[in-house]
């Protein structure tokens, strides 16, 4: 089987590629990533280096999903049976100041992926069996009802990033209906872990604490986040990949869209203040911070930021029902693994 993973040098993408290469020995993994400079490219290079040990079972192409000719060439050359689209411009706050990057990658790029999936059936070919793509908990916006369910109405995004992710779900539904392409969207909830994105709070907090700077805790600490460890995310993606929505024909003789959307979250939101306390404890335990570090002196409670929401909380009952899986890595275990990686990567 050939599997195409876009965003292969990214946080989730690289971990997914690793799992596929370790466990599916008869699989060729084709990774596409543009290695942009949104955050430290050295981390992306480090992630890719972990995949080179698998030799010719992993093929890496540097490029952008917004490049239609490149995407079409990849599909023609490798004919992937499964496509996992994780390439996207991430970040809520960055979308306020750099909207062009989101339109290019998240809308135009995703459109090229959908079109390539449609073309994969040309001339009677078997084509793509399953398109799995990253959505986000950001689509829930400022919904007051918790936990967030995929049955909830999500028509009021509070950031352009969220709007592009909801657009991905709508575009995928249209293509599933029109061309009978099995597709599954995954709404990820605050993913963290070793070699994660430096723009995420836990990573930025660590950098600042190490430099002796103050960290800003938004909404005066009254935020709750459904932090999800990266290994749990990858396990969920793996299970979803293996079970595409079933193709069916409706009473009108037309396809019923083989289309699903799931939440992948820890189903256990944590207080941001508890989060930073545990992070501090694990950074001290790993030797990143000294044992006598005065955390209180470096903590600053500030108002909510534009585009942010006070709580994220995933209803994962559908994921449990359909795949027998529920993320369960504790916050302390996940932050301990991050702290140990951080020390190895930056301090040795």
TrEMBL record:
Coiled coil: none
Entry keyword set: NAD
Protein name, as recorded: SDR family NAD(P)-dependent oxidoreductase
InterPro entries to which the protein is assigned, alphabetical: Epimerase_deHydtase, NAD(P)-bd_dom_sf
Residues annotated as domain NAD-dependent epimerase/dehydratase: 3-265
Pfam family, one: Epimerase
Native organism: Bacteroides muris
């Amino acid at each position: 089987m050939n599997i195409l993973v876009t965003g292969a040098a990214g946080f989730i993408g690289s971990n997914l590629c690793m799992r596929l290469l370790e466990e599916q020995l008869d699989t060729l993994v084709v990774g596409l990533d543009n290695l942009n400079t949104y955050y430290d490219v050295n981390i992306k290079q480090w992630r890719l280096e972990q995949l080179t040990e698998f030799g010719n079972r992993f093929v890496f192409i540097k490029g952008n999903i917004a490049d239609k000719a490149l995407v079409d060439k990849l599909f023609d050359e490798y004919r992937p049976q499964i496509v996992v689209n994780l390439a996207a411009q991430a970040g809520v706050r960055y979308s306020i100041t750099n909207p062009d990057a989101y339109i290019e990658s998240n809308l135009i790029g995703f459109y090229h992926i959908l079109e390539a999936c449609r073309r994969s059936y040309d001339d009677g070919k078997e084509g793509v069996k399953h398109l799995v793509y990253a959505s986000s908990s950001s689509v829930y916006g400022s919904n007051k009802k918790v936990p967030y369910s995929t049955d909830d109405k999500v028509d009021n995004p509070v950031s352009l990033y969220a709007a592009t992710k909801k657009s991905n779900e709508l575009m995928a539904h249209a293509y599933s209906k029109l061309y009978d392409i099995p597709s599954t969207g995954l709404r990820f909830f605050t993913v963290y872990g070793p070699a994660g994105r430096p723009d995420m709070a836990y990573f930025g907090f660590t950098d600042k604490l190490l430099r002796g700077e103050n960290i800003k805790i938004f909404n005066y600490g009254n935020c709750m986040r459904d932090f999800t460890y990266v290994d749990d995310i990858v396990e969920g993606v793996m299970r979803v990949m293996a079970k595409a929505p079933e193709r069916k024909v409706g009473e009108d003789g037309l396809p019923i869209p083989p289309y699903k959307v799931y939440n992948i979250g820890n189903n256990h939101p944590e207080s941001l203040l508890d989060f930073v306390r545990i992070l501090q404890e694990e950074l001290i335990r790993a030797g990143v911070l000294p044992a006598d570090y005065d955390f209180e002196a470096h903590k600053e409670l500030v108002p909510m930021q534009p585009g942010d929401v006070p709580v994220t909380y995933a209803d994962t009952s559908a994921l449990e029902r359909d795949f027998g899986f529920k993320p369960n890595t504790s916050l302390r275990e996940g932050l301990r693994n991050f702290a140990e990686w951080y020390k190895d990567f930056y301090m040795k």
